[in-house]
Amino acid sequence: MTPQATKTSRNRSSRSGKKVAVESYSVTAKYYDAAYATKQDLVDLPFYLDLAKQSSGPVLEIACGTGRVLLPIAREGIAIEGVDNSLPMLRVLKSHMEKEPARTRRCITVHHGDMRRFRLPKKFPLVIIPFRPLQHMYTLHDQREALTTAAFHVQEKGILAFDVFYPKMELISAGLDQEIPDLEWPVDSDSIVRRYFRKDSVDKINQVFSFTFIFRTYKRGKLLHEESELFKLSYYTYPHLKALFRLARLEPVTEYGSFAKTPLDNTAEQMIFLLKKI
Hints:
Elements: E1 10-13, E2 19-22, H1 29-37, H2 45-55, E3 59-62, H3 70-75, E4 80-84, H4 87-97, H5 102-105, E5 108-112, E6 124-129, H6 140-152, E7 154-165, H7 169-172, E8 179-188, E9 191-203, E10 208-219, E11 222-234, H8 238-247, E12 250-256, E13 270-277
Parallel strand pairs: 3-4, 3-6, 4-5, 6-7
Antiparallel strand pairs: 1-2, 7-13, 8-9, 9-10, 10-11, 12-13
């Protein structure tokens, strides 16, 4: 879900000591669509698609990535603008757009920008931030800036919708340095890609953990290729989010604990919010 900071970004130091930006999702972008097509518990699309239909558009999607949510909305004839800081992800999105019919492409406008700072010269009845991009905001300042940016683009009486995971504290610190098989998908009749997950560190004070995705391609059981990418995720408590809403001059209209619209309570797997401007 955005990591700049919409998606996870990394920096490396040059010999001169200056930081050199590394494009976020530079490895993951090429695997992203195939990987998440296999994820059985990724059930957010109908929720956001229904919100888009209710709004009639135009819609702004912050951290639109490869278009997993953006493209189905555009296929419904709803105008949607997407913004993302990851050029590799946007390149994948644009390759998908080239395969869409003209009536779908006409509904789409894409921007390259950082969710903490970008400003478009228009407001929207619906702004969405699907699949947890706000968890790539690691400091209070960045979290507030991202929500303030989103609120800036919401029309009066409009809605901002986003989701983050409900933190299971007993699991966040568990399994450090363990390489866990995560997802698997076919490339062709005799090749597959397997994604592995390794949690590298946990910062309990700042509520951030670091992890690595490892992508291994196998042909007939033989390892052909391996790539990896480091990510970070922040996690939120409910009071933390409520305080951020106040700082960004937002207030909840509706809260859910799942995309089936179950209550936000101790059984929740997600924290999903529909917000309006104060």
